[in-house]
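Appendix B.2, paired examples.
Example (i):
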Amino acid sequence: MKIKNVLIITCILIFLVGLIGSLWLIFKSHSQKVQIIQNGEVLYIIELEKSGDETIEIKYQGSKNIIQIDNHKISVIDADCPDKTCVKMGELKSSAAPIVCLPNKLVIKFAETDDIDAEVK
């Protein structure tokens, strides 16, 4: 009976370690380069580790988004869009969940590689 319990506990631990490792690989940022894209056009490529604290104002058809880089982290701190989902998203933490402002066609995401071969619109 003891060998069966040890085997079950070992299988559960292996499963949990595999699950945690998989989630970590999916959600970790693979790059410290961030792209700010509006309407399919890359406006800025920022290396967070080398950047200082600053704010960037991006305008689109009379509306604007204010992006803040603070302590090597990037977030949208103000927007003219009605729902302000981009502000509520907080800091960009992983490549799996970019910051998006649909009304202003703005996307802030980690760059997957250093060289961009193509972009789909």
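Example (ii):
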Amino acid sequence: MANIKANKKSIRQTARRAEHNKVVRTRLKSLIKGITVESVKANASLIASSADKAAKTGVIHRNKANRIKARLAKKLAAAKK
């Protein structure tokens, strides 16, 4: 355990941030996993928005967000056919 006051605060902050990041990551994964070809039209903007927000705050890498959106667009195109 840290002895310095600033280090103790840093540990608390890290724990809080890790918990929040876990919630965001889990929600994004759940949205992606629950999508089907039929439901892609309704949830496309929600998933893309969630991926962008997660990337903006540093929860996921921006390339991962782009990859998620590309796969989503691919499913959306398949649903239109």
